[in-house]
Amino acid sequence: MLSERRLQVLRAIVQDYVGTEEPVGSKALTERHSLGVSPATVRNDMAALEDEGYIAQPHTSAGRIPTDKGYRLFVDKLAGVKPMTPPERRAIQNFLEGAVDLDDVVARTVRLLAQLTRQVAVVQYPSLTRSTVRHVELLSLAPARLMLVLITDTGRVEQRVVDCPAPFGEASLADLRARLNSRVANRRFADVPSLVEDLPEAFEHEDRGTVSTVLSTLLETLVEENEERLMIGGTANLTRFGHDFPLTIRPVLEALEEQVVLLKLLGEAKDPGVTVRIGHENAHEGLNSTSVVSVGYGSGGEAVAKLGVVGPTRMDYPGTMGAVRAVARYVGQILAES
Fold it and tell me: How does DSSP classify residue 74?
């Protein structure tokens, strides 16, 4: 266990290095921070921190920089989440409230996160597997052709044209719409198949083929749209941090192009809290020089997807964690009200 003073020294090193981009020396620490001890004592503390792997000395400098282990301890023990100011919160709310549909919400969220953190923003679309049905609408297009519209609690809207095996009257259509919604409205998508499997039996024999076709289309929609989707923005921000990446940022850019990698980075949506993965904690080799800050978002206090940012390990962790958490909270409110 590190002493309280050495924890203070580590906190000061992280803050100074993130702020100045320069390796930090003992003299600078004692001048900038009220550590209450001499530069010689700070040098001893820095030597101990280096021995334990929390800081390292770049070969070109007399100063020290934090290691992944040092950042990890800083995030876990030393860094509070920096709250957004009232003007920042109002700006987030006003920007997101103008969205017209789910695609617009996601696009605005990506832009906003990239601007707030000046890093790469990644937003996962709400997954149908964790969504619930808000409403199923059935519209007649022709005597034997229908439009099925599926609306989720996260504002997602899916439309499918259904070609029926026989003409289907307005009275039967209204009956099917009512029965279907009574069974599936406000229920999880995962539960829908078992909830509707015996529905055709409630109809006259000549209508059962059409009812089965509508149900098949509904269930196929769930399967088709089960594929995870995400949106990424602010990649150009990485060019500001070129010297933070060994040799080149190319491996980072290549990793960011792989959707599977990004989904793994964000982690499971069921974990709603702020998650920080630092450097080599990211399994993908191309992202070993980055940190990922992510959080779940959703309506009703339950996460249905994740959003986050990717940037260099030399990151303003308190500010980034605060921004990610605040944006997620507003996105969840918008989805709940949509």
Answer: I
Angle, alpha carbons 112-113-115 (nearest 5°) = 65
Query: Which residue reads 């920080």 in tokens?
Result: 276
Record the pTM. 0.77
Q: What tokens were used for 70?
A: 């040092």
| Helices (H), ranges, the chain | 4-20, 26-32, 39-51, 68-73, 86-97, 102-117, 170-184, 192-196, 208-224, 250-256, 259-266, 317-337
Question: For residue 80, what is the DSSP state?
Answer: P
Q: What is the pLDDT along the chain (338 residues), one digit of tens a residue?
A: 678 888 999 999 999 999 888 899 888 888 888 888 888 888 899 999 999 999 998 876 678 999 999 999 999 987 778 888 898 888 888 888 888 788 888 999 999 999 999 999 999 888 766 678 889 999 999 999 999 999 887 777 888 999 999 999 899 999 999 999 999 998 888 888 999 999 999 888 989 999 999 999 998 887 655 557 889 999 888 888 777 776 678 888 888 888 778 877 777 545 668 889 999 888 888 888 899 999 988 876 677 788 999 999 999 999 999 999 999 999 888 877 76
Q: Say if CB 108 and CB 96 are below 8 A apart.
A: yes
Residues in Cβ contact with 273 at an 8 Å cutoff, skipping those fewer than 6 apart: 295, 296
Q: Is 328 exposed, middle or buried (0-12, 13-18, 19+ CB in 10 A)?
A: buried
Name which of 108, 138, 272 is nearest 213 in CA terms: 138
Answer for the pair 50, 64: CB distance below 8 angstroms, yes or no. yes
